[in-house]
Amino acid sequence: MYAAIAACEGARKDLAVLQAAGFDAVMFGNENDRPYEFDVDTASTASMAYVVGALRAEIKVPFGVDVHWDPMSSIALAAATGASFVREIMTGTYASDMGLWNPNAGAALRYRDRLKRSDLAVLFNISAEFASSLDRRSLADRRPRRKPRIDVGATGSIPGLDVIGDLLAGHDGRQHGVGADDARHDRGVDNAQARDADHARPLVDHRLAHCHGKDGR
Fold this sequence. Notes:
Low-confidence stretches: 182-217
CATH architecture of the domain at 2-94 and 104-124: Alpha-Beta Barrel
Helix content: 40-55%
Oligomer: single chain
């Protein structure tokens, strides 16, 4: 419980900064709860629920949750706290440093419906950030019908323009998130790579505007 109280104070400071900066949404996750598990201990999920509950009155924007790396616990936490979305590795089969990674998206989505949260948005990571997919199809071919978030390579790496181009080719109006967490200069990223990522942004914006219309819709 002492750890949860300490985490709550840190989360409160982060929440205040993010909301003051004008972010559209925030997400609560257990990034530092390592080593990661596929079947997360109940105490971890309960601690996260404590933190979100303690801050609930201070949250002014939509919020999501992610219990690494357990889809069922993520759904349960979202249902208990009133989260608007979850982000998780929901589908695919990967070779990882945690062993074989094989989540069950069907079970998680059925669980969401049983908890009467069919309104809960689910963001699919279709490329795990520290694992290798055993699926030989391209990322573009692996896109689910729902809105995916695509992690490319290890945390801190920069998405290649070829990957972004493949995903946007044949774009059908869905929104996609492409990235690797904290991929910036202060994480040891090569400056040229960072500049490439910055240059990619107007290219992506232009191609999305072409797909949706000038206003991006």
